Amino acid sequence: MSRNDGQDETPGDERVKGTAALLVNARGEYLLHLRDDVPGICDPGTWSLIGGNRKAGESPEETIRRELMEEAGLSIPGLQRFTVARSLGPDGTTKGHINVFRGRWDGDAAALPVTEGIMFHWFAAAVVPRLRMSPWARSVIELDSGVTRRRFAPQEPS
Q: What does the alpha-carbon distance between residue 45 and residue 63 come to, in Å, rounded to a whole number?
């Protein structure tokens, strides 16, 4: 399923430079990355999704594959475009847009190599509102968890 946050950019838009991976395990938990709390980086000290910006000539798909490998040593087959998220600066204005890809991974977050940031951890959607998170990442999880609940909700007997 591909969703858009209502902006005029679409998931394939070349102006969208950022990418992120929304990774979900069989329990419906989300893999989050605790970012360094240092000045000069986007969303310092927050839980976020793995990702980063495209290099010249890279497609969004190539970028997210590279970022997953660089930041966590992961190769995730079958990633699907999910949405385009809008990232806001401290003043509330749009600072960029992020192509979000969704995939499944059932590994041990604590065993992942950490080449950027502090750590990786699995979180249930119900815990996400209590975390210090980048707002765009929180909105992506909220979008996904709502979609997941509707898709897998028990059916009423006929």
A: 23
Query: Contact at 8 Å (CB) between 47 and 137?
Result: yes
Is the alpha carbon torsion for 117, 108, 55, 132 positive or negative?
Answer: negative
Burial class for 23, CB neighbours closer than 10 Å (0-12, 13-18, 19+): buried
Residue 123 CB partners (closer than 8 Å, separation 6+): 29, 30, 32, 47, 131
The per-residue DSSP string of 70-93 comes to HHH----TT-EEEEEEEEE-TTSS
31-82 residue pLDDT tens? 999 999 988 788 889 999 999 999 999 999 999 999 999 999 999 999 999 9
Specify whether the CB–CB gap between 120 and 110 falls below 8 A: yes
